[in-house]
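Example 368.
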Amino acid sequence: MKLSGVELRLISMPLVAPFRTSFGVETTREILLLRAVTDEAEGWGECVAMSDPLYSSEYVHAAVDVLTRFFIPALADVPELDGNAVAPALAKFKGHRMAKAALETAVLDAELRAQGRSMGRELGAVRDRVPCGVSVGIMDSIDELLDAVGGYLDAGYLRIKLKIEPGWDIAPVRAVRERFGDEVLLQVDANTAYTMADARHLAGLDPFGLLLIEQPFDEEDVLGHAELARVVSTPVCLDESITSARAAADAIRLGACQIVNIKPGRVGGYLEARRIHDVCSANGVAVWAGGMLETGIGRAANVALAALPGFTVPGDTSASDRYYRTDITEPFVLDQGHLAVPTGPGIGVTPIPDELAAVTSKVDWLPL
Ligand SMILES: CSCC[C@@H](NC(=O)CCC(=O)O)C(=O)O
Ligand SMILES: [Mg+2]
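Predicted structure in complex with N-succinyl methionine:
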């Protein structure tokens, strides 16, 4: 394919309710969307970087800058562009995996649309629908939390994930167990809020039969997670630490994780995400699809990824209305706790022009 240019679009999506984690509160999601225009088709990619560098070092305006000044111009020199050619063309640039992922996805989407192949087929999906979990933020009270969890269970979600932080961990987990029983699939996510000094305290979660404890320590403290795994019986899952297939292989070898949360944006794209899936599967490590509050653009691709064979636990692929009153694509709607894997060419969805225009704050066109 020949790339004629890339549109960078900033949109602002108000959340249906504040979403609080151990690193802050999100009320509006500022998102960078890319539209790659080629001589054969157009493709879309969603950059999952947050507005501020709090989940990781990346943030929206840094992604705009690095794509504009370095990554998009670098594709001009690629003679036969396709999804597989993007990562090698950007390999000389360090980091910025979320920006790279958005660009690779837009080019891959264009390639697949041109060839009439779905993302699911390209990645190796083996299911036509995926079981869905939901991520529940830190709340002001246990009662508020129990109302929220009850609502999600009534909606059909098959797994509950509770955000935790020091001072909000054992009590909310105990309350959910006491109210909803031991059968509910339940896990927690600390977003790096603890240290090894908290190990004994975190062992206090063991009696509650959690599926996993996600990223309790700093993303660089891989050995700390291995040490924790020797102290607690709850399986340790890594998110922020797993930035590549190599990082996954090292973490598994060090005993730092028994389960892996795969987020294509965090690792540089869906092709690397599939490699991480393959490494984990080869080592008997279960994986699940993480989320970054994506619109239907990113959500469509995540649902396709979640249909691969090694995704054996429900992921954070929630319905569109978990975060947004109106999505910029046809909404993803939960059906018996599952989302259908898009079957159309590429990611299988496209933005609805009026909905996209309503949330757009800035559009830039970068010709090549
Ligand atoms: C704003 S928090 C984003 C990162 C967080 N994501 C979620 O909790 C799931 C978000 C979603 O449902 O998309 C995680 O660390 O796993
Ligand atoms: Mg996480």
